[in-house]
Amino acid sequence: MTLTEVMSELAAKGSEATKKLLVKHGAKEPFFGVRIADLKVIHKRIKGDQALAQELYATGNGDAQYLAGMVADGSKMSRADLASWVEKASWGMIAGTTVPWLASEHPEGFALAMKWIASPKEAVALAGWRTLGALAAVVPDEKLPIRKFSALLDRVVKTLPAAPDDVRYAMNGFVIACGTYIAPLADKAIVTARKLGKVDVDMGDTACKVPDAESYIIKCRRGAVVAPKRKTMRC
Question: Is the pTM for the entire model greater than 0.85?
């Protein structure tokens, strides 16, 4: 499929109901309001087309950018590509899902995430913390810089209260990821969650809630020391 063909199909599958829902979650124009289920149908036909994924993302259209993240292979992208994608994310969901999916597949994903979490730009910092959480979930413990992840848990305790809403939510998610998937940090993540207590985030006009980190970690472990690593963060 060509870029024009994909964009035409996205436009046809968009709906006002989905647009209204996504606006409540922070979506910004341009976007059509395409359901994830419909994006998956298109994804099956263009899976692995790296060049098309780049073209889709470059449109700046929210639906196209999300689809691009489903199609692209982060391990085949350059560091410059990922840096460009994080800067050009059309809204928070793209910065918090599409970019981290791909960055977690890149050999320099950790270095990129560490740079991003220091950014004064909320969307970039959000992407950084989400990437760190993704790495915790998909990378084997023996390949993770455990001491640095441990230090990041300490950093969360110190910096979360003053962070912007989306970043606080992502930091809370990072603690959950560490406690759920990293065996050497399983206990420390629980201690970190208790230090944080209830994390308040303005979720706007949505039914979304901030998960309690400790209870969520325990739920995800399902009685085990930690949960099995995930193959991918894509959904």
Answer: yes
